[in-house]
Each structure stands twice: as C-alpha cells, then as structure tokens.
Amino acid sequence: MEIMPEKLFSEADKASILAAIQFAERETAGEIQVHIENHCGIDVLDRAAEVFETLKMHKTKDRNAVLFYLAVEDHQFAILGDCGINQVVPENFWEKIKDQMLLDFKQSRFTEGLCKGIEMCGAQLKAHFPYDDKGDTNELPDEISFG
C-alpha cells in the first residue's frame, strides 16, 4: 500500500520547508511553491509544467514564480521557473540547484535538500527581484501542495 504524499514528511519537516519558503520570499518579490506527489506518470518536466499551471504560478505580476516538484515514489524531481526568472538567472542555474539537492536526496535527507534548493533559489530571486515594501504582496500561497 502506497503512503499518501503528505505523510512522507513529518510535521517538523513540513514546518522546515515552509520556513525556508517564507525566509526565501522575505526579501524578494519572487514566489516559491513546493508540490509533492508519489508519481508523475509522464516526463517529470511535463508534469511539473502541468502543476505550475494548475497552481496558477504563471499569473504572478513579474512572471518570477518557481516550482519545486517532487515525485517521491518515482525518485524524480524538477525545478521550474517562469519566464521572468529564467531570463535573468545564470545558465545552468536550475541544474546547479538540482545537483546540490541530489547530494542530500541520495542520503535520504529530502527536507534538507529541498530547503537548500529553496535557499539557493531565494538568493537569485532576491538579486533579480528585490522586495519592494511599497507594493509587493505574497501572490501565491506558501503552503506545500500535495497530489
């Protein structure tokens, strides 16, 4: 019997991931979301793109949302940035984050890897989309979504 994806992470793990998202977003107008499910059923980037659209991440004002997508039973994950952030981050930026996360994932440290990836992403979002207290709002929910 398969474990529900929301049960794969403890409450403390979920709180750590949420804290990482909120910390990363504190100094940027960018948006970060995490979606976790057991299986992707199709190419992992195609599934991440479906989730990205379902979560309406493409509707941010500056098109600077980033999705961390995990299909845990399939051992696949993807990071998908919208066109606004993709235009300004260095080449191979997402691959470098994935490589860093994979180091933790291979040691079954999924929460740590995810939090590091979110932190790295947040630093780039801050550099390119700094927080502006005159009009920035949290455009997308911070909570983890499960499929």
Most strands sheet = 4 strands, mixed
Low-confidence stretches: none
Q: Which structural category fits the helices and strands?
A: alpha/beta
Number of strands: 4
Which geometry do the CA atoms define? globular
Q: How do the strands line up in the largest sheet?
A: 3-2-1-4
Task: Give the SSE order as H and E letters.
Answer: HEHEEHHHE
Distance between the termini: 16 Å
Report the β-strand fraction as a percent range: 5-15%
Number of helices: 5
Tell me the radius of gyration: 14 Å
Mean pLDDT reading = 91
Q: Give the fraction of residues assigned to helices.
A: 40-55%
Write a brief caption for the model.
The chain is built from five helices and four strands; from the N terminus they run αβαββαααβ.
Task: Provide tags for this entry.
alpha/beta, globular, single chain, 147 residues
Q: What does this 3D model show about the protein?
A:
By secondary structure, the chain is α/β, with parallel strands linked by helices. Helix content is 42%, strand content 15%. The chain contains 5 helices and 4 strands. It has a 4-stranded mixed β-sheet with strand order 3-2-1-4, with helices on both faces. The longest helix has 19 residues. The radius of gyration is 14 Å and the shape is globular. The mean pLDDT is 91.
